[in-house]
């Protein structure tokens, strides 16, 4: 893909040392536009010429020419020509008068003056003539050489001392462990989607790790774990962030200066550096986030030629990239939102373009739906499919899934459970709603309501999930030696909790969370109880046998109706507070809603010595069911990750702490002999980028107010482009930041790292707009500003590089790192 | 230069050519058929109702009916209902002049106080529980309930007037008004001592005034223009001063004003100069920011003037504030503290004393952590000599006199009198919280831990440096000097080894708000005598101090915000905003078990669903219009579109601004928070009905001046079908109102089957429902 260095004419040696092949693309101004300005000037404007006011912003010549597509070159993408502009001009006058003062212009978008609506994208590029000198060759290929240099630098920063700490640092404890599960093929459960962790597993596989290490936090890696190789492989994603940043800023049409600055900021931020150097998901998340933005900007620049091969390729890659980023962490949905908003605006523009035929309109819509919705969903689902295919052994995450799914895992013996359930059986009961757990009780009692023993839904196996099926108190008591009595539809039973002997009980006390339902508790013991312990079994159906009258383990879906109150046992993913250990609330629902899967239960484990073992292995669990079940379970446990007010967590931080780097984060133990890593950012990058967001908003406000007063600061395409880059950066930032303010879960500093990218893009954009492509400054001034900025960046990076490369020895001996009072970098 | 020069110049301005350019020519003529260009060409029905006589008859009938429906059996129930517990009580405090604290601004509550005072309520009944009888307590409650009933009734003609001023037919205006008139939720809410009737009334007046103001926009800076601008500001302030949600009304007027100013800024219109813009901007800043704020403040000023006595709200306020209230305990018995006094300390939130006893912490806790085995320091709820501590200086003191007073930021030691040990904390985890420090005591003569026994007295509320430390009023934090933790306690109790007393530990967050203590009493001075009177100002009778009004206001306003955000406890009848427009759930206000009577706040389901349909149709029209214009089509006549966007669009903003913010709030939410939005949606429904019935509107409706361009007039006509539709619909609405009325008026009592039949949606949680028979 050749980039804008367009028509090169000069075959000789450049006549001045600082000329470049960029100059060759400088084609004349689009004359029609200026013609129409000429026309205005003498006649209708005449006497007012004295009131001319300077525009707030000048584009430099270089910039203006590069961006503005020449009339001659426009034949490809638009039917823009001189005549149209003149007639547009007339129309414009007409429209001014038509403007009715009693109403408002209900168009939601300012109209460009010349009536043309062209995307801010770059025009088509032309093949370059062959270079004749080495200088020429180098100049023509700066596009390749610069990113290569940056990539090499990036390799050095990312790989330097990467194995220095031979202990399990920070969340390596989690993600290393999950990687091991893939190698051992054991089913585990985690709140994040699987792609990132599968890549960790792949890195382990490629480096020859056997999955045997437990990844206990702070432990020293044994010789069998090739942790350096694994870290290097994952850090490669981090390396690639830097060239992506370069290419993105080029695609965003920034000047060379601004491109360099943006790339340097990505290269030299210690936060991104630090997080990329360990066995964590963040480097992959960041890489895919960067990739998505890059694909989007690339696609934007193909807009001049819709449905061309390049156009399709970049649209498709945007979709793939969205799918990947979402499959690494759900935070990827935020960048998806950015692409979504961009697409909606784009389609809205297209919708208003009456030159497009209905068929073209439809094709545009269909292309977006396929590439940006269908493809990402397929990628996301594919990652889960692979996840299920790899993890086919029983493991620690079993109980999160449905009973049938578990029965199909190797090493699980549910399928050997006795088939028919009888009185006297010991069972565990699984809620059949999406993400449902096992009916559970423990000795702790409710601090509210009846103060009786808690009954919850729990997602891990332990013997507190076991219940005995016994007859009602007034019924014939269960005789272990007597004839077997199978459990049938309509039977009235008592469920006795095996470890504590309490009976499953409900009464007219409101449940702790679902206030309209009755509380369910454990009450009495093996001899004490009342008629509030009675539950009637209502069989819904049998997933494999259809409708039957008898309860079978695993496949029978049944409901438990409280005999005295007529309510139904229900568990609907409502999380109890800390006193209930964040387990799921179980309540008794007064409404008889037959369709409510949260009132469906099935027998999972089943023990009864007097019954023969069954064989249910044949019943497969369909993929879509498992996929949805796992996703609901992930959401539920993610929502349970709310900060515990009773527990002070010094690692957690609030979103307001991030933009100005109020806090850092100690990633490991802080002993004198340890190598210490401190997650923070390069202060100039964080502070500067945050300030630039405010500056950009202010600038926009000033321009739009002047626009309403009809000061013409930029021509329409310049303005469109200014807005386009600003929108990508601002909305990207806002989508990645605001949700954290609203959501209740615990947040950490590293949640800001994807957000930071957009702030940095905005920093580049603002610098570009005010300095590097402004005509107010000479090249010399620009060079000086550039030099100063780069040296500040490099110096700060050098000053703080220790926190990412690892601090040796007592931390207090490293002087001058505590720039803000609140950083707990020193002891 | 030429290319540069072009960019910098201002865009040429076409001359505003109003004379040679006929507005109507751009208009597609196909719309002309329906337009009535003369008032005489309309149908007879329309002519009658549009006349002043017809209009007066309609509005009088609506108002009379509104009063009848709201005053019907207003004396029932003769018991305290739902939030009357709060607002009745607050009204009583105005009569007894006792200071109270509430999250809502005072206007509506003051009006209730005024109403109570008028009807001779003495303020002695405190509305303690739902169901308390008014009769046996001799409360003239009917007079107090009459106030919201009057305001609620008057809302109906205001709604009518808003629609009339917006240029809709009388029939359409009557339709919108009847949506409020026959609404069970509005009626139920207006018949009880609740704030919402006042809020909704003032809010509707704000909308009315703003619509009026906009109609004078071509007569800018005339008397009428100023009058309605200031009226808007005034009613806006009243809305906000009635209930905290009223601030949303301020926001929605703000949004409308921003749109307005944006238009005025537009240089293409009449070539407005910046001076012109600034004068408009300043007029609005004065009339809609400064003036309402003064009005709002004046209600607080009255509030403080009336509430001069000490009351239940004292403890929320700072000591300086409390000393302005007559009879306040701090004012009456607050003394300076001298070194070597023996004191008792009490925790502000949980009211436990700082306590210690000779028993020691167990070596190992249940969870395996170990303690220092030092002497226990706990929080104890009762008076006991083990609560006595002597305050020891760490600096040299003069022999006598005021130099011995303990002051803010002094570093002191605390000596536990019965065991003769010094209070100490150190980096050992507390028994219940691994993150917090353990408190213990240390022998007085052992100097090895001297540093750990040093504490700093830090007076709360940013007291000045040399502020004396006083008993009662001296709220303070005790900050440990070496480790910077604050003495803190929380309601969790320790196990049996500490006699279930409350845990005391060191909180590492020194800005923790609940770490505040005060000196309950000065037990003895340094000679173990009763402390002599030694106050700075030897006042014989304690007169309340005065305090700057603005300081008082700011303190109260901040507290109101904090407490409003803190109302997060869950409530069985709380509901999510998404349920509200569809009337999914109501609130049980009151029940009477003997007669099976109940008041259940629920709207007229036909009316509410009509409003939802109206809203969705309006959004549909707007969206269709946007899409069509995007494709260069023009399906709606310009004048009608203007009305839809500018007038109904404003109603939509009112609706949205009063509704959307609730999605972001974490506090408990109830269906009655939707009532202001419901009113806005009734306005929208009227406009949509007009759009469906006919394309005609009264146009233009703004007052013309010489500056205004001549525009072709047109007149609305909904004809017979309009009257028939509205009458028919009104009848259905009224029947539904009657059907639900037993739940609204709380009478007559209902049998189980009747309750079941009134339960139109299965989500309404009515009481006394007959057991449903499950036939499966």
Task: Sum up the overall morphology of chain A in one term.
Answer: elongated
Mean pLDDT of chain A: 81
Oligomer: heterodimer
Rg of chain A, alpha carbons: 33 Å
Measured between the Cα atoms of the first and last residue of chain B, the distance is 89 Å
Structural class designation of chain A: alpha+beta
Short recap of the structure:
With 827 residues, chain A is an alpha+beta fold. Chain A is 42% helix and 10% strand.
Which terms summarize this structure?
heterodimer, A: 827 residues, alpha+beta, Trefoil (Acidic Fibroblast Growth Factor, subunit A), seven-stranded antiparallel sheet, six-stranded antiparallel sheet, 15 strands, elongated, disordered N terminus, B: 776 residues, twelve-stranded antiparallel sheet, two-stranded antiparallel sheet, 42% helix, transmembrane helix (chain A), endoplasmic reticulum (chain A), dolichyl-phosphate-mannose-protein mannosyltransferase activity (chain A), MIR_motif (chain A)
Q: Can you tell me about this structure?
A:
Chain B: Transfers mannose from Dol-P-mannose to Ser or Thr residues on proteins. The complex is a heterodimer of chains A (827) and B (776). Chain A has 827 residues and is an alpha+beta fold. Chain A has a domain at 413-618 and 631-639: Trefoil (Acidic Fibroblast Growth Factor, subunit A), CATH 2.80.10. In chain A, 42% of the residues lie in helices and 10% in strands. Chain A contains 20 helices and 15 strands. Chain A has helices spanning 31-45, 61-67, 82-98, 134-140, 142-159, 172-184, 195-206, 227-251, 256-268, 270-276, 282-300, 309-328, 332-351, 358-390, 403-407, 623-639, 683-708, 716-742, 753-772, 779-805; strands at residues 426-431, 438-445, 453-458, 467-471, 492-497, 503-510, 518-523, 535-542, 556-562, 568-570, 584-585, 587-589, 601-607, 665-666, 678-679. In chain A, strands 2, 3, 6, 7, 10, 11 and 12 form a 7-stranded antiparallel β-sheet that branches. Chain A is elongated and about 100 Å long. With 776 residues, chain B is of the alpha+beta class. Helices cover 42% and strands 12% of the residues of chain B. In chain B, strand 10 (486-493) and strand 11 form a beta hairpin. In chain B, helix 3 (52-71) packs antiparallel against helix 6. Chain B is elongated and about 105 Å long. The interface between A and B is large, with 55 and 59 residues.
